[in-house]
Design goal:
CATH class of the largest domain: Mainly Alpha
CATH topology of the largest domain: Arc Repressor Mutant, subunit A
Number of helices: 21
Strand order of the largest sheet: 2-3-4-1-5
Number of domains: 3
Largest sheet: 5 strands, parallel
Distance between the termini: 24 Å
CATH superfamily of the largest domain: Winged helix-like DNA-binding domain superfamily/Winged helix DNA-binding domain
Shape: globular
Strand content: 15-25%
Structural class: alpha/beta
Length: 465
């Protein structure tokens, strides 16, 4: 089934109906659903879909030759297909085929092709400028290496710079979008599913939630034969040259290290070396870098595992590895995994609440220009203060200050008083609007203040409606 990419699909179809040359760049991290989107778009349309190989230029040319042969001869055996002399000859044949019909030409995993044949971007540039710009070809360049696509395809120094007619950066699905996969799931289970998969469609499908989250995890993640059990390791091997070092860095962050020097020390490498490895993890979206909203001081920079699936895996699999391999995980699961879900979900819930304010809240008192977290030192108590949500207006005079609590207990008036004190430490705006999100609800006293307009109160159920 195809879910949740209706906007992107609609935009692609609108461009297709224009019947003019298009060069569409589609990129995003692995497993996010790029190929599924392209396949859905190409359904019932004339299309040559070439998936580049992580191999040599000659093998890619042979593969493209077979793909073109299969398009020209549906159902025929392509093993003996003639091989074009070079990529340019293959592109000329595609040009000829497009003369009689609107033709989609997809190059999936374009970075593989561009690295194997360093002239291919220049060849494509030449074809676009001198031939295809006057044709009906609908060219799609797709890639999972986000840094390559942004710098070597979309970047100023790329031969293809300025040739794209549109670009789509495919993001993970939001917490609310993934409910399309399991509409009858409870809000709590839906939130947990988002916390485990990070909104990556491939992981949602592989987790195969039919008989509840616990059974799905035991059968499809905490099992040494399961696909998801080795997914992080396989992804690191596929994308990076020294997966063991990257693995150590991710482990260090997952265990609580957040500053670069702390991460380097736990990983057993020098800080300068760690910085280079960190850049690759940032490019892949596995790690994210954060600074307090409104701050420019990079000394406050911290790092988190930004990919929820990696964060979940590194939080729970290594510590349960022996139990998984020995087949004892089902007995220990309640105490070593499930018991810790509320604590694990704290950061996930914060992101869900920020997403709610950005995408789903119908009316807000502030037109948000940015949203994030803030932390700093309270000069009175000399203690660190952290605000879960800070939303800023464009003129930076009005702010939304929010707290997120993913626990079963009801939240009381003291939480609002704490937010007010934190806002005074933040001290950057002339007016503040207070929001408190709670899984377990609110006391009557706090609800009364909410009714009086002093604070906006939202439960887990509220942000899903």
């Amino acid at each position: 089934m195809f879910y949740c990419r209706e906007k992107e699909l609609s935009k692609l179809n609108k461009r297709y109906s224009g019947d003019e040359f298009e060069c569409i760049v589609i990129y995003g991290r692995r497993r996010v659903g790029k190929t599924a989107l392209i396949n859905e778009f190409c359904r019932d349309k004339p299309a040559i879909f070439f998936s580049a190989l992580n191999s040599t230029a000659n093998e890619n040319l042979e593969a493209l030759s077979r793909t073109i042969y299969e398009y020209k001869n549906p159902g025929a055996d392509s093993s003996t297909a003639p091989v074009y002399r070079d990529m340019e000859d293959a592109f000329v044949e595609i040009t000829r085929l497009s003369e009689t019909e609107r033709l989609i030409f997809v190059i999936d995993e374009y970075p593989y092709l561009a690295k194997a044949d360093r002239s291919v971007s220049s060849r494509l540039q030449h074809m676009i400028d001198h031939v295809w710009s006057h044709s009906r070809i609908f060219l799609i360049l797709c890639g999972s290496s986000m840094s390559f696509m942004e710098y070597q395809v979309l970047g100023y120094e790329s031969p293809l710079y300025g040739r794209r007619t549109a670009q789509f950066k495919i993001q993970a699905l939001t917490y609310k979008e993934i409910t399309a996969f399991h509409p009858s799931m409870s809000f709590e289970d839906a939130a947990l599913l988002y916390g485990i998969t990070g909104g990556i469609p491939h992981y949602i499908n592989k987790l195969c939630v039919r008989d509840g989250i616990d059974n799905a995890l035991l059968n499809h993640l905490f099992d040494s034969s399961a696909y998801l059990f080795e997914e992080p390791e396989n992804l690191l091997k596929q994308e990076l040259r020294e997966p063991a070092t990257y693995n150590s860095i991710i482990c260090a962050i997952a265990k609580g290290a957040s500053k670069l020097n702390e991460i380097a020390a736990k990983a057993g490498i020098e800080t300068a070396v760690c910085s280079k490895y960190m850049k690759a993890l940032l490019d892949l979206g596995i790690v994210r870098k954060e600074i307090p909203l409104t701050e420019k001081n990079t000394k406050k920079t911290i790092y988190r595992v930004g990919d929820n699936f990696f964060r979940f895996w590194y939080r729970f699999v290594p510590m349960n590895l022996n139990a998984v391999i020995s087949g004892r995980i089902e007995k220990s699961y309640p105490d070593t995994v499930k018991k810790h879900f509320p604590d694990y979900m704290g950061i996930v819930f914060e992101q869900m609440c920020r997403d709610y304010l950005l995408y789903y809240a119908d009316e807000l008192p502030v037109a948000l220009s940015e949203i994030g977290q803030w932390w700093g030192t309270d000069p009175a108590s000399k203690k660190e203060v952290q605000i879960d949500i800070v939303g800023a207006s464009a003129d930076s005079r009005e702010y939304m200050i929010g707290s997120c609590k993913y626990r079963n207990e009801k939240i009381g008036v003291d939480e609002l008083e704490l937010l007010r004190r934190y806002a005074s430490v933040f001290g950057k705006g002339s007016r503040y609007y207070f929001y408190i999100f709670s899984k377990g609800g609110f006391t009557d006293g706090l609800r009364k203040l909410g009714d009086q307009g002093e604070v906006t109160l939202l439960t887990l159920e509220d942000i899903y409606r």
